[in-house]
Design brief:
By secondary structure, the protein is of the alpha/beta class. It has one domain: HUPs (Rossmann fold). 38% of the residues lie in helices and 11% in strands. The protein is built from eight helices and five strands; from the N terminus they run βαβαβααβααβαα.
């Protein structure tokens, strides 16, 4: 019997990365979940990521410490206020202060290293260029550039024993389309966590960019929002 192909899945515990993990599972991959404790104010997401990896049957779930709070420069890792109640138009026009410098580049680099050790060709990431909050490292140009770099930067890539592919199944989907896909795959979105500025017990604020995108996504998808909000 042919063994399942392995895939490293970047998991934040959020709606998008959970949907990506479910897609990878549906496609027949053996799942290796990777999360990061990077000094984020919304570290409650790591609890969700652990739960999701168990529910979806991941072979392993690594949490790697990367102290991006020592660098700062983001409302997620520094003493900067998280924006609230921003309109969708404003969200799409500018890179917000919740952008964490080089975060996806750093995360994908760790994923690349683990994938090479696992001999996994595929790395899944839940980036999205439609309903996203202006992040430059969620664009197709970035993903293509990183994939090209990955195949030049690894022993397996240079020797031709393994070709790395960065898989982005949500890249061109709206948040509503992502939610509908996840519902088809049987995802319980109540166990996911998206808020940038949650309460100490993990309740979503309901007003940050991520919460607004999530709320609007459920509304447009015609699906009840299972998120627990502060108010």
């Amino acid at each position: 019997m042919k063994s399942q192909p392995k895939a490293v899945i970047l998991s934040s515990g959020g709606l998008d990365s959970t949907t990506v993990m479910a897609i990878a599972k549906q496609e027949g991959y053996s799942i290796y979940s990777l999360s990061f404790n990077y000094g984020q104010r919304h570290s409650h997401e790591l609890i969700a990521a652990e739960k999701i990896s168990n529910v979806l049957g991941a072979e392993d779930h690594l949490v790697i410490d990367v102290c991006l709070d020592k660098i700062g420069g983001s409302a997620l890792t520094d003493n900067i206020e998280v924006p609230k109640n921003r309109s969708g138009t404003i969200q799409s026009r500018m890179i917000p202060v919740t952008y964490v410098p080089a975060r996806n580049t750093i995360f994908l680099s760790f994923a690349l290293a683990w994938a090479e050790v696992l001999q996994a060709s595929d790395i899944f990431i839940g980036v999205n260029s439609i309903d996203y909050s202006g992040y430059p490292d969620c664009r197709p140009e970035f993903i293509n550039a990183f994939e090209n770099m990955a195949n030049l930067a690894t022993k397996s890539g240079v020797e031709g024993t393994l070709k790395t592919r960065i898989k982005t199944p949500l890249l061109l989907l709206t948040k509503a389309e992502i939610i509908k896909k996840g519902i088809e795959l049987g995802i319980d979105y109540s166990i996911t966590h998206s808020c940038y500025d949650p309460s100490s017990d993990g309740l979503a604020c309901g007003y940050c960019d991520s919460c607004i995108l999530r709320k609007n996504g459920f509304k447009k998808a015609g699906v009840d929002d299972p998120t627990q909000y502060i108010t």
